[in-house]
């Protein structure tokens, strides 16, 4: 796995799991709850330290920290604290399981995770899904989706994208021409060509293909996808293209739209803030500033309230004025 260093949350030092466990127990014991202590501790320790705290909590008090958090906290703040406690390795598998369970599938979550994770991360997710839920992720997803949307999800689930290497310019030219003929030049669209090329070629190759495509067609590949496809497939193709160009820019846009306009998509806001907090949230903040002239800190400040807001702002880190 790549070593990520652009997160806002890093290992806390000096760290004392027992002292943290004791402080958390005290914050939840008896009448009333000291939310401030809970949010300060959980947002300033990294995920592996939070797991050590949970283990110390059980050792010292014979109680389950997550169960206690669930019984003491409520609403979005509870969801955020419980999400922070979820072990990193199971976070994505858990989100996917909930996206495909019960009535209706949450295509937004499937799209976000499958488009943005690396092949190594994807292989890991499939393995964990099998271990934790004794089910095959691909079977579950194909059972709940259909059409070209399903096919592209399956391609991405194979996690067989070509590794980055030296780019062959004649293959770049060829792929760009194939995409041009499959979309703009064709009456109707050959979706399969888009799925194969966008789902399997290396990141560096595709970045060159997008440039070449612009030269040949006069359009950005996103404009063509927008015109030639629709619905869930369109959203997934666009997410894949955006992640090929820049994963932090993709998440900056995701966060921006989770808070823009009336109402907040709290599920997305929590999922992205927690899952990227130790990976690339600093880069995401930068991209949000660059592409939307917005500070993540100020957007959260304006769109949320209470302890939920305090905790999100601590995860966000600084303000990009």
TrEMBL record:
Protein name: Annexin
UniProt keyword Nucleus, yes or no: no
Record-linked SUPFAM superfamilies: Annexin
Cellular component GO terms held in the UniProt record: calcium channel complex; cytoplasm; endothelial microparticle; external side of plasma membrane; nucleus; vesicle membrane
GO BP term, example: negative regulation of coagulation
Originating species: Strigops habroptila (Kakapo)
InterPro entries per record: Annexin, Annexin_repeat, Annexin_repeat_CS, Annexin_sf, ANX5
Domain notes: A pair of annexin repeats may form one binding site for calcium and phospholipid.
UniProt-listed PROSITE patterns: ANNEXIN_1, ANNEXIN_2
Signal peptide from the UniProt entry: none
Keyword entries, A-Z: Annexin, Calcium, Calcium/phospholipid-binding, Repeat
Transmembrane spans: none
Molecular-function annotations in GO: calcium channel activity; calcium ion binding; calcium-dependent phospholipid binding; phosphatidylserine binding
Annotated family: Belongs to the annexin family.
